[in-house]
Specification:
By secondary structure, the protein is of the alpha/beta class. Helix content is 39%, strand content 22%.
Length: 747
Amino acid sequence: MILATDLDGTFLAGDAAARHRLYRLVDQHPGIRLIFITGRGLEAVMPLLSDPAIPRPDYVVCDVGATVVDGHTLQPLQPLQSMIDAHWPGEQVVAAAMRPFTALQRQDVPQERRCSYFCDPATLAPLRSQIQAAAQALGCDVLYSADRYLDILPPDTDKGRTLAALARLLDLPRDRILVAGDTLNDLSMYTAGFRGVCVGDSEPALTAATRGLAHTYHAQAPGCGGILEAIEHFALLPADDAWLKPPAAKRAEGADLVMLYHRMPFDEVMEDGVLVQRPPRSPNGIIPSLLSFFQGGQTGSWVAWGIDDPKRGPFQTRLAVDAEHYPTLTAARVPLTRQEVDIFYKRFSKEAFWPMLHVFWERARFREDDWQVFLKVNRRFAEATAAEAAHGATVWIHDYNLWMVPATLRELRPDLKIAFFHHTYFPSADVFNVVPWRREIIGSLLCCDYIGFHIPRQVENFVDVVRGAMPAERLSWESCAPRFLTYGCAVGLDTMTTRIRVGDREVALGAHPVGTDLRRIHDVLARPGVRNDIFKLRREIGARKLVLSVERLDYTKGTLAKLEAFERLLEQHPDRQGKVTLLMVCVPAAREMTVYRTLQNQIEQAVGRINGRFSRLDWTPVRFFAQALPFEEVVAHYAAAQVMWITPLRDGLNLVAKEFVATHGIEGSNGVLVLSEFAGAAAELKGAVLTNPHDPADLTAGLLQALSMPDEEAGGRMRQLFGTVEYHDVDRWGREFLDAVKQAGNG
């Protein structure tokens, strides 16, 4: 069958259950084709094409029949479109001809090959023949509808005649076409001789005009419910069609909280041919916090990928995470081959999305084949989640690698409460819009009930992208102060949107900077081995000041600019030579990620140049370690350093800054934090010395300020910083996020 349907009041209307049932039927049934046929302009239809909850049409007929495009490519359908174009004199010509009729008010809507006006029936009556004559002089038709609207259209153009022409062009069987509408604007579809349904709550004028038409059904249910009635009435699908079956009954068993993260809370290693679990080699402070939500007996699932390799034996889909500490938590493993992991994560996520998110859009490499793998992997995550979650469960999805999960998950399980936290930076529309699949991504995220970001600036950037892609209404907002800086840094903002409405869906938004795990740092500092390492580092540095830099090898971190700033400091302030040492820990990327090799060579050359220029027998200006250090050693370096120098060109947050503050706060020492104002943490860490990493002079000045800072000022700044980090720790971050999800309701 072919469903040719109006949108507003018809395909977009009806109760939620009927919409979900019809959309699922149209989307999944191999024998159904869909045509949108609407008075909207194509530009106003495009947001609907971004909504994964709404089936993608095969064809779109817009502007009351004046525009016809392929639903997948949005390219004009030829030769039909050219035939319509040939008889349209042009918008400016038509508008000029209608200008003398001052009683007409032009509709301010996007449209092509059509001029639309509001009209008052009483005022219009004496002008009607004159307007008709003016339109005919241009070779155009006039369409009146609902006693309120007037359209000037190309000749012989309306919904019914364009649909009939489309059917002839595509050789569609007329007896398998069902048209659906709800206003007099749709009348031409019924009079063209197609089977039709006037959905419930249609305009009385349409109902009256179609009452005598033999092939028109008047449904009781509005919107999608009425269309479903008509499919049954006309027997367009067999009664035993499997796709017509109602959704499965509510699921009672399953996890109440499902966590989707990029990796398991343990490492998987092969020992003597057996797959075993080991504590993570590079523990993440977020993972213990996320695990803590499963300590109270709440049933839960942790969904992440597992390598499906025949050499490892049969793939295990479900594993216990920790029977002793988390007896009700199950690890649900999504089977991926090594090639899929390499494409989905190491190549596509890092080469396409990572540079774009950090505003290095010119580095982004977008491949359609990789996008298809990305979609496939995200669908597998969604399917695994749907199988794990109890009815009404909360699903917490983490970061951009899983952008497309909400779309599929909402389709599979509309009962779930879906929350998403974006760990990386989220850019503004002028950057994000370079992504070829931006509409699909935004449409998927808008299937969530709640979306969290680190700071208000990232929330507003997301809203900026949404508003550029589709009509969105800002329902509520709040002041960013005093929690966040407003005008004090590059990522500051004064107000933040907390709820938006897109179509009939509401999505709550919030800013939740991830906190650090103070218990873990406190425990590390208490270890005798770490105390000994701190002592040795301090003795080795002696009276010199130690400037510490800890970061991953990445062009977003500004490492080269930092080295050049340090070189300028030694040039411009010779008195600092021999009195300050820069210790850089730069964690290298995985060997497969070749995009970083050139950068590492450049950094190593800069280190060699600086040390070659300024080294003395008893002093090396830059000590560079291109390796990952155990967390215990990193904490020891935090404690021994007087200055922490963190200067990313763009960063979602930066937990290293908070770990440094936590270490000195616990130690009661006066470390100074120099932080890029383009790091998310700059918006909340009041007391840091903020610096602009894009300004070479400011980079050097910020470091000099930290090195010259009196102890009293450094102590005051650290107390302010530690107050923030201690209160807003990682546990509070997790609790506040889930509390916000609960308060968000179901959009």
